[in-house]
Amino acid sequence: MKFVAFERAKQGTGASRRLRITGKTPGIVYGGEATPQMIEIDHNALWHALKKEAFHASVLEMELGGAVSKVLLRDVQYHPFRPLVQHVDFQRVDAKTRMTMKVPLHFKGEEESEAVKIELNLVNHVTTELEVNCLPAELPEFIEIDLSGLKKNGTVTLKDIKLPRGVKWVSHGKVNLVLASATAPVAEEVDAPVEGAEVVAAAPAGKGGKPAAKTPAAKTPAAKK
């Protein structure tokens, strides 16, 4: 993806506030051998770009002063309650230097799997993004996970898939990572009557909604001796 930035001359809180009033977002570009550079971006264009997944997880082309350089989005600061981007950070990309980046996972095929189609399992996407290390040219926009082979109550882990060429998983000491799992749906519990419990019939209501008075049982004449 490509975006246009402009050089920002003034710095400070007051200058940034005035910049936002004019519909611009202050930012910074750092990394590499060059010094950090202050920039400004059209807020509306930036707002719409941030809604796209690729803007967060791919190498971007930044046009600044007629020159195009490759950068990565590293940080975004939003207003606490207003739809406003307050500041944005980018990092310069060196084509020969490996980098670490979080890449989103796209799942497919779960509706055709045995777990869903036959066993009516529910599929949970346990991991939605993967931290990887690779060269900028090898960075994938996303990693596709095929769940068509998912079995009853089964799982798909990182060892079950093949990462794109040149891409390595940043494990942070973990041996394996569960990406998706299938579980049986929870059956609804029905309250069963307690064994041995007496069923008491409600007395018919009398006038005014009060229970009808009990009728004394008729006495049986005593048998003559």
Give a verbal description of the structure.
The strands form 3 sheets. This protein has a 6-stranded mixed beta barrel with strand order 1-3-2-6-5-4. A 4-stranded mixed sheet has the order 10-7-9-12, with no helix packed on it. It is elongated. It is built from 4 helices and 13 strands. The mean pLDDT is 86. Helix content is 12%, strand content 35%. The chain folds into 2 domains: 2-92, Ribosomal Protein L25, Chain P, CATH 2.40.240; 99-183, RNA Polymerase Alpha Subunit, Chain A, domain 2 (Beta Complex), CATH 2.170.120.20. With 225 residues, the chain is mainly beta.
Q: What is the CATH-assigned architecture of the largest domain?
A: Beta Barrel
Q: Tell me the CATH topology of the largest domain.
A: Ribosomal Protein L25, Chain P
- Helix count equals 4
Distance between the termini: 113 Å
SSE blueprint:
Elements lengths: L1 E6 L5 H9 L2 E7 L6 E6 H8 L2 H5 L2 E5 L2 E12 L6 E8 L6 E10 L5 H4 L4 E4 L3 E6 L8 E4 L8 E3 L10 E2 L8 E6 L42
Parallel strand pairs: 1-4, 2-6, 7-10
Antiparallel strand pairs: 1-3, 2-3, 4-5, 5-6, 7-9, 8-13, 9-12, 11-13
Please summarize what this structure is.
This protein is mainly beta.
Notable features of this structure?
4-stranded mixed β-sheet, Ribosomal Protein L25, Chain P, mainly beta, elongated, 6-stranded mixed barrel, 225 residues, RNA Polymerase Alpha Subunit, Chain A, domain 2
